[in-house]
Amino acid sequence: MEKMIFGRYLPLQSPVHELDPRAKLLFIFGFVIVVFLANNILSYGILAVFTLLCIYLSRINIRFLLSGLKPVIWIIAFTFLLHIFLTKEGDLLFNIGFLKIYEGGVRQGAFISLRFLLLILVTSLLTLTTSPISITDGLESLLNPFKKLKLPVHELALMMSISLRFIPTLMDETDKIMKAQIARGADFSSGPIKERVKAVVPLLIPLFVSAFKRAEELAVAMEARGYRGGEGRTKYRLLHWQGKDSAALVLLLVLAALLWWARS
Amino acid sequence: MKENIISINHVHFRYPGQTVYALKDVSLNVAKGEWLAIVGHNGSGKSTLAKMLNGLHYPEEGQVTICNFPLKDEFVWDIRRRLGMVFQNPDNQFVGTTVQDDVAFGLENNGIPHEVMVERVKASLQRVGMLDFLNQEPHHLSGGQKQRVAIAGVIALQPDIILLDEATSMLDPRGREEVLRTVRQLKEEQDLTVISITHDLEEASRADRIIVLNKGSVYREGTPEEIFQLNEELIKLGLDVPFPVKLSEILRLQDFEIASNYLSEEELVRELWTSNFKK
């Protein structure tokens, strides 16, 4: 679990960390679209260089980033193989009996895998450089226009931040219940899968019961502290859009223009 | 006579669908600036009373007035602004992801402008001695620290009354002492009224006045000294008498001469080690 980089936040000092979460969210959103412009070696090369630049600016150790990618490597390898075997374009490279590998398949496979890899790298940069609460604030602020369409933006953001706040609490609780069950002879770590799944039930039930109890008490406490929905509320955390945030988006536009020029 | 900040007149209350009254003809007043302890066994109605003072329940009959506001729907938010509540479970009242966010929560709810908010968060945390923990997440804090953050969240709204609803019952002795010391200090610094609802008579013994609730009614009312004279009766009500009171009672049965029921251990110790000089 320690190796997982998804959803982890590394509190460092870097130009990327200092960006407004809204800028980063918009940037990622734009990047996901722009990536699809690339379709030849030159344009993919530009994309790769751009991604490396982003990683460099975030001051995050590239080895750390790559070691965190291990769980996804298999999915990338799988898509690569799928393209190699199933795409029948261009010149025939290999022909081993029923296996026919075409030049187009290798190229396609390599491009798609690279695209996938770059997308994962850039999106994990978002969570690595932005604290979860900032992401929540950014989302709330970006989704604000949708309030007109009756989307409960404030409530969604509050739900997100409360979930984030209770994750460690519930983890501790799970640990406690697990130890209590082990002390009474429950076995979570050995035996056939069916038995192990069964052993989880007496763990989940008390966890659910206590989570509901917590929710109820929290609701009472929130009401006692004057919570009555998003109306008339002020915000403690303020977001500041600065020049560098606009610059980041301009950079993305430059990338899009470059890719447009380089694609065939 | 000091003016009353809370007055409760002949209040009756039942939980929906119940025939038994949780509160039966309760009348009491709280004077401005006093420390009132409300004690009682489980099911004595003390928590129901606490929730009523915060407008989480409304009386079926009778009137409740808090800071000159009658307890009615239209005033409930004004009352909550003036009466801050600290609950039992430190974890289940911590809303923010960090200490400062949690203190700000009540301020945000009341639409306090951002600049004022930043100042008040700092000032309140300073006063409960938690300023160094500004950016800490709740799971890195002890129970006592979390309760102190909860108190900071309450005083940030500059209330007139603090209501502690069993706020120390889940804490270890050190955490309990921390929290009570903080509240006492705050009470001295500004003219706060403190109501502490508890079943810990040790905690109640430091109040100015104690009200004993039993089965939804006021059973006794008096200073801690007066209440602890009831000794046997309190035990019958399922309340645990403080250790020094218990000890003096037993010593008296053993024919030791002990002047009165001491509420604190120090007083009793002083009485004991000087007792031979008096002979």
Automatic annotation (TrEMBL), chain B:
Residues 6-240 form the ABC transporter domain. It comes from the Bacteria. This is Energy-coupling factor transporter ATPase. Belongs to the ABC transporter superfamily. It is found in: Cell membrane. GO terms for cellular component: ATP-binding cassette (ABC) transporter complex. Its main location: membrane. GO terms for molecular function: ATP binding; ATP hydrolysis activity; ATPase-coupled transmembrane transporter activity; cobalt ion transmembrane transporter activity. It is a peripheral membrane protein. Pfam families: ABC_tran.
